[in-house]
Amino acid sequence: MSFPHLLEPLDLGFTQLKNRVLMGSMHTGLEEEKGGFEKLAAFYKERAQGGVGLIVTGGIAPNLRGRLAPHACQLSFSWQVGKHKIVTDAVHEAGGKICMQILHAGRYSYHPFSLAPSKVKSPITPFTPSAMSARQVRSTIKDYATSAALAKKAGYDGVEVMGSEGYLINQFISSRTNKRNDEWGGSYENRVKFPIEIVNAIRQKVGSDFIIVFRLSMLDLVDNGSTWDEVVKLAKSLEQAGVSIINTGIGWHEARVPTISTSVPRGAFSWVTEKLKKEVKVPLIATNRINTPEIGESIIASGQADMVSMARPFLADAEFVNKAAANTPELINTCIGCNQACLDHTFSMKRATCLVNPRACYETEINFTPTTSKKRIAVMGAGPAGMAFSVYAASRGHEVVLFEAKSEVGGQFNLARKIPGKEEFNETIRYFINQIKLHNVELRLNTKLDAAVLANEKFDEVVIAAGVVPRALELPGFDNPKVVDYQQVLTGQVEIGKTVALIGAGGIGFDMAHFLCELESSTLQPDKWLKQWGIDKTYQNAGGLTVEAEHVPGREVYLLQRKTTKMGKGLGKTTGWIHRSVLKQHQVHMKTGVSYEKFDEQGLHIKIGEQSEILAVDNVVLCAGQTSNRSLVDEMKASGLPVHLIGGVDVAAELDAKRAIRQGAELAMSI
Question: Coiled-coil intervals in this record (predicted)?
């Protein structure tokens, strides 16, 4: 066994967890869908079958006012128990254990009936909360206990009390949001009465044979957050109150520090869990950007924590633990931390899923059943769409031949993985390479699929996933060798000078600016990354913040866009602010409403409104989108065979691996 510490059971006294892996809480959106609990049961059942030691559900409100949104899920009444039992029965049938997370949103609620310790509006939600009366505080504590008792009745093995990320309990703990002058505010002892009384009330209601996990904010990453001494004090009080496990919470949602995106180093916050481990005896869980069994094993083996929490990695691969136990980690579909199909969907009120695994949360709808009509299928292009289709179609029993004109698979992912902070894209390529071998897909590198191939070999259908080509601009001087496209830069075909103008400020433009400015990826240097974002490992200041390190950009970069809208408006809902912050750190000049006139020996001539300007740049890099690579589509159709288009060749918008992989999966399911 290569991961002995990760796979070792954890004895909680009254019950035992079969390993040290927690599937962390994620809201999927199924909780609110019609018939969603049946789908949720299938989702959790697959993860239980996949070997995870303990599952924690998405947040369930203890009362109406605590809901995240008007129609969000709550557990407050006995008539609500039945649908939860569908989930717990499915998990137990698969040999798993599951806890329900109790989450009161407080001022983070997206509805006008929100309550908080004080009338202090959140910077990330539209509504100002009402301050809770002392009676409402007491009533809410009782609601937590009632919800926990109903969870036990529904068959849950325990509950997780959400006390971090800036939700209600965190709002009581912090002087940032607690401005009360009664017994629930003022001194730290008063402010932490709320979480302690909640745990006491729950333990009294559910008895001693029920898991209580407390999600403790160990690092607030906001001004006026908890000090380290306060975190330790609360942890000890929670231990005395009878919690079974303490889970690590990192950062409030309003914190201006990334905590789970792909640019965050792996295991970047395990040090703070280790810091607390010296203070309490209750088992501790490390969390955030733990996405491989190797990282989990290292954290536990080194004594930093007793368990590791992984949430999105179980969207990416339900069989994560089983594959680790079988010593085949190379077969794990690794979470790349992109947020595009999980958190971006959740915060847009859509069902969560996963960019690298479109079956996530669609277990009852997307399945690759064995075919009754085997076909020989030619696939053009081994980018994300082509690889996904090939693997899924081959898993159904089709004979698939995958043609790639270049010497390696990966397509646009081979470019994306070169951007600082996007090194995780290597893992998706590795996963598909192994799946191609596992499912006996015939891979032909350095080989173009053309009419001659189709004439000489027998195929039943053709799938074109040949991707995109960069869009060129026809302007005076743009035929100059100093005007290049983003692909030429990322593949090292051209050398770039010290001063550069980027035309196009979508995802490609932002990535290119980052690539040109950050010559060494801080994501691969955790201590440097922590300093970059002003995180203090010595925890001298409240909230764990310090002054951000000064940045010396590798180049002077101008990021230009034609539109007058906010720069980066089309970036990911939960990651766009990070990209903008990084470019600000690197002192990138951002200009909107730009018209491009020409390029000559003086530089790039532009106009903003009526004002003309010459940017004295060494190079211009075109990041103005792409066009579909349809050069061979007509030739393929002339063969008379059914032809399918997926990925960028179908729709050449911004590079969209989420859509490309999902299209590949849906076509493979139906072909």
Answer: none
